[in-house]
């Protein structure tokens, strides 16, 4: 079957390790099911995999891709939850949790195999392309907002780095849930898009907000960390799920953290139940993922290049 996969690790030039070509189709295994992929989407996790983060060389070659929507063996339209080993379903009881592409082949292929427990029905109102955006970036944003930040309608939230998949999802979901959403970006066009999606104000990164917020959604890391801490109300929460600009800020703002009793919460992906809730939320409210570009799988390299350059706003989708 045709697939996009990591053939080697290159920390400095990750796309040099990306290959497009034939890979073995999934083999049958007890408790697992094979899904014919119709659409999948890119995440920064795929770039990190090509750099060797979470993917050691001894597991190469490895098909990339965490997200997928498709059709299972019984003809059902489905969405995949890409966390394997979270409950023991389909794997050994002591196997640690992993995301597709870390231990098991991913979704940038004509077919992918996952434990049957990881398959959820796709709402009829969502296209395959839309559904394929949800299991990683949008699920991460959902958990950050509603589980780990614990915000409620009427609360205020700052989303750092508008344009990325998680940040874009947080703006859209926050607006739909009745939050007052602020956003930042270095790019004027991305700030304008953030306003169109429902942010009440979008400012250049580092700019002082007109008010302090209840929570910050942080995926940028070092470049925005100080601004995130300074933007919080006393008792506020910063939820961090990534550090695309690095994980060593020049100033940790520890004095402000303890004096204002701020909370710092790490967040990774989300549970199957949260994905089910997210699917229902989108189906009931009409909220749809923001898609930057749709490409066929054989043009995956173009999508990787666009994501690496940071030129996208929303998700890059690959169709099979």
Q: How many helices does DSSP assign?
A: 9
Low-confidence segments, ≥5 residues, pLDDT <50? none
Helix-strand topology string: EEEHEEEEEEEHHEHEHEEHEHEHEHE
Q: Overall 3D geometry?
A: globular
Q: Give the C-alpha Rg.
A: 19 Å
Gap between N and C termini:
11 Å
Mean pLDDT: 95
In short:
The protein has helices at residues 44-50, 128-131, 134-148, 165-176, 188-197, 225-230, 254-259, 272-285, 300-309, and strands spanning 2-6, 18-22, 32-41, 62-63, 69-71, 77-80, 83-84, 98-99, 111-115, 119-121, 156-159, 180-184, 201-203, 213-218, 232-240, 263-266, 291-296, 315-319.
Describe this structure as you would to a colleague.
With 320 residues, the chain is an alpha/beta fold. The protein is 26% helix and 26% strand. The protein is built from 9 helices and 18 strands. Strands 3, 5, 6, 9, 10, 17 and 18 form a 7-stranded mixed sheet that branches. A 6-stranded parallel sheet has the order 13-12-11-14-15-16. Helix 3 packs across helix 8. The longest helix has 15 residues, at 134-148. The radius of gyration is 19 Å and the shape is globular. The mean pLDDT is 95.
Break the fold down into its secondary structure elements and pairings:
Layout: E1 2-6, E2 18-22, E3 32-41, H1 44-50, E4 62-63, E5 69-71, E6 77-80, E7 83-84, E8 98-99, E9 111-115, E10 119-121, H2 128-131, H3 134-148, E11 156-159, H4 165-176, E12 180-184, H5 188-197, E13 201-203, E14 213-218, H6 225-230, E15 232-240, H7 254-259, E16 263-266, H8 272-285, E17 291-296, H9 300-309, E18 315-319
Parallel strand pairs: 11-12, 11-14, 12-13, 14-15, 15-16, 17-18
Antiparallel strand pairs: 1-2, 1-4, 3-5, 3-9, 3-18, 5-6, 6-10, 7-8
Helix pairs in contact: 3-4, 3-8
